Amino acid sequence: MKKFMPIFGWARGYDRRVFASDLLAGIVVTIMLIPQSLAYALLAGLPPEMGLYASILPLVAYALFGTSRTLSVGPVAVASLMTASAIGRIAEPGSLGYIEAATLLALMSGLFLLVMGILRMGFLANFLSHPVIAGFITASGIIIAFSQLKHLLGVSASGENLLHLIASLGGQLNTANPSTLMIALPTLVFLFWVRSGLKPLLVRTGLSDHAAGMLSKTGPVLGVIATSAFAFSFDLGAKGVALVGQVPVGLPTLALPALAHPAWKELWIAAIFISIIGFVESVSVGHTLAAKRRQKILPDQELIGLGAANISSAVSGGYPVTGGFARSMVNFDAGAVTPAAGIFTAAGIAAAAVFFTPYLAYLPQATLAATIIVAVLSLVDFSILKKTWQYARSDFVAVAATLAITLMFGVETGVACGVLTSLGLHLYKTSRPHLAIVGEVPGTEHFRNIKRHQVITYDDILSLRVDESLYFANASYFEDSLYSLLETRPDVKHVVLLCTAVNEIDLSALEVLESINARLRESGMQLHLSEVKGPVMDMLEKTHFLAQLGGQVFLSQHQAIESIRAMAERGPRNAPQTIDGSAPSHTRPVK
Amino acid sequence: MKKFMPIFGWARGYDRRVFASDLLAGIVVTIMLIPQSLAYALLAGLPPEMGLYASILPLVAYALFGTSRTLSVGPVAVASLMTASAIGRIAEPGSLGYIEAATLLALMSGLFLLVMGILRMGFLANFLSHPVIAGFITASGIIIAFSQLKHLLGVSASGENLLHLIASLGGQLNTANPSTLMIALPTLVFLFWVRSGLKPLLVRTGLSDHAAGMLSKTGPVLGVIATSAFAFSFDLGAKGVALVGQVPVGLPTLALPALAHPAWKELWIAAIFISIIGFVESVSVGHTLAAKRRQKILPDQELIGLGAANISSAVSGGYPVTGGFARSMVNFDAGAVTPAAGIFTAAGIAAAAVFFTPYLAYLPQATLAATIIVAVLSLVDFSILKKTWQYARSDFVAVAATLAITLMFGVETGVACGVLTSLGLHLYKTSRPHLAIVGEVPGTEHFRNIKRHQVITYDDILSLRVDESLYFANASYFEDSLYSLLETRPDVKHVVLLCTAVNEIDLSALEVLESINARLRESGMQLHLSEVKGPVMDMLEKTHFLAQLGGQVFLSQHQAIESIRAMAERGPRNAPQTIDGSAPSHTRPVK
Predict the structure, then answer these.
(1) Is residue B494 part of a domain?
(2) Is A381 helix (H, G, I), strand (E, B) or coil?
(3) Domain STAS, which positions (chains A, B) (predicted)?
(4) What is the pTM of this model?
(5) Shortest Cα distance, chain A CAs vs residue B445, angstroms
(6) B546 contacts chain A (CB < 8 A)
(7) Is A521 on the interface with B (CB under 8 A)?
């Protein structure tokens, strides 16, 4: 029971001290979440109340089923962008079909996450490498910021990728609304200042560092109040400034999404992408927070928690949700101890939906757009390009490809190409394994690359370390490389493969080894193996390979060399050909 | 020059003895190739002369550019089936558009092979594993055999996969033509007998084993002559038996294929599949033959050779060709020494096109169908299922998936799914690496799995061997596994990662190692690395990881343990915590 509903784990020890902590965190997150929820709904092209609805039941569902103590679930920037991009293809923004498609998408995403969790498929998220995620998030941040410029300018523009957005905006610049700009620019400046300037100011008034940090997170609400009051006082609506307008008062009504919606066939790929990206984002935040308090999250149970959250969102008029980075950090810093903080936040947002929605009518959309821009620009981080360039070209290629393709062709194509690029590069690397000729480090039983270390070698023994599992993609390459090496070493009578890095030999590779063994035997050479791992040996023992092997399988490379040299000195016995008992031929210099 | 046209390599030492050998092989292959060329054209749904045309210029082109001395190029069963399947989607068999599409496909395939060769992309073929090829070839053999049954029965049926073929045939059984069956069944029995019974008979007449073997390969020609004579004598054409009919006499006219053909957009995927499958088939035959005479083939130059062959086929009214297994074996066994044998074969087929085509008018199609069935049934080999089941489940899954999907959905889908399955299984395995806790084998400096060997371990040192490169797909799994291991080992103060199998640490994995290092350090433990390979160490040295590392990097695991134990006995110096200098705690039994 505790396994499927982690609430039974933490609810037992719940006391007044924890309650107070959670309540404070719940209040802070509520104040932060109100403008964010409205803004992300705008980003998704949905009515603002859907942002609030997506921040009530989903938080409760996650609190019941999720394993992170402090993750805060709700609408997030990237999932909102992906929602807009997916449903924008099949319905007109603002239409009933569009809204229905958004709740349907949440349901499909929830069911997909749930099934993945039940099948314990959380490991699939590991195939999204860090460079791909970093490239994708940065590109998404840029696209989102550009997509909101139209609200600051008071024009209409659209586009799923950067090129379309810029072209669309460029054609509209001359129709920009001066009143909208007049309210948008000061708000943007204020919100940027809040991020860095408000906290020091509060500290100077005598607040503690922590309290000032918390209070500064509620800054955006000041922007909402001030711009709403301004718009009301000067009747900006009549001057062409887009306002939020009438928002339904009260809690969402519970209802199943339109399952018969004709769009579900077109939405399922988008649902999978949103689910996986949301899951990866959420799990990475969850891991980070859990590590700070020596807690653990269980990815497969997280799938169930996020699945439940999305299904709750769907039945309560919301849209796809996931764990957000910024709000989870605030929740954590504000002192949240258990998921009860999330339940308090849900209660806070519910109260807002009931009591504050009438006041949203005069809120300018430009204020929400400014909130989004300030939030997403913190996602944009090009340092990963420099970091990967310095560390590994393949990681750099993965980042650059994901970044460029996401900007040019949109989020789904970007992620898909990023994953394929990183997997392709990995497979390419393993298809051309590094091979090192090794010799014994003097005074040890340890063997190292002759090009890097001063080691002892013998002319009649080729000690070859294969730096990769042998499988179909590299078996031929390995065979060709070995023969090329032997062509330049006519004195070799024994080839010893040091198998420390060979974690697998598949059937294709086994056949190549059989052919190598036969060819060496015909040429009067012996093939030996050393340091073969248990699991690989288990497999070889099921075949005839060991019986046909010209040489032997040695426990260690040291024993292989000792034994081959001893045999050479005794004269041939097992070996079909004579071996000259030459002394160590040379000690190679370090390159 | 020799590199791009290998003919300059072998033509220099050409003498009368080699000429005699090559000429004999050329004659034997010609006699074998005449019925095969006609039959494979029938299989591709093309007029019989196209099979002959595809066996003239392509052989000359391959002789000039290919690297195999004895490979015999021409129409083959699988490529013919794939051609039929690709162009059958866009044109009616027998129509002018169908024929034009076939030559266009040869041109596209030729250009693709040529470009791959120039870009040296031959390595891509390595991603087709042996199980995938075996499953695909067996399934193709079954589909081809079923596709020819209609000719034996004298009915019309069609279908790209087994299910369609069986359904289509089933509906036609009642319309079977008795005269066709009367000629088809004896021919089929005769051809099967020729494969196994003719050679022993010839040996008994006093022929040498080799001569009998060669002569028996010409058996199918007897079937062609006998059934043609029979059809002529009894006027079977009037009794509803499908005959080959009028075949144009003479050599093909040279002409560029219809480049403006509207179908090229629909053909390019098929062209890629045919090229890659043909290349893999050809290279594997080429490797096998070259190995027998200690020769070498160069896969990238083979791409150029096959590309040239297909382009020649396209401009001389042929269709896609590649190196065939059966005819290359016959060529080799008949004594071919150089590619000149292929040129003699081409001359032989050209002579046949000029002088023998009038006699083909009465040849029953059923004879050709029987030729195909007998040829392809030798491709069908289910033993790979048993072999892979015994050796490795992942190889079995790859074979079974390729076999089943090819039978059910056709050749292209089958190969694509097979490749994706085998790559997916490989990635899945590497995403869950084997981790072994190791200890020192007494009396050596060698470390082995505590579960398999009697080894020395210490309670305060966890020696962990990671049996895989660390990369994005397995970094989290490794992290979780390590923490789980540590939970059950509270006395551990030192974690030594034995990195013999770690061929790469990508950025995602580096970040995981940094987080592990930080967490162990916070818990009063030290992370050490040992036996880090040169290329991996080069990468780590570019980062801050080594500076932050709580422990050290040791040359060998033996030195790591010695050094940590020495430090423990001296008391803490580098280490932030005390270590009790306990004696070896236990020697583990072999499991």
Answers:
(1) yes
(2) coil
(3) 451-564
(4) 0.86
(5) 6
(6) no
(7) no
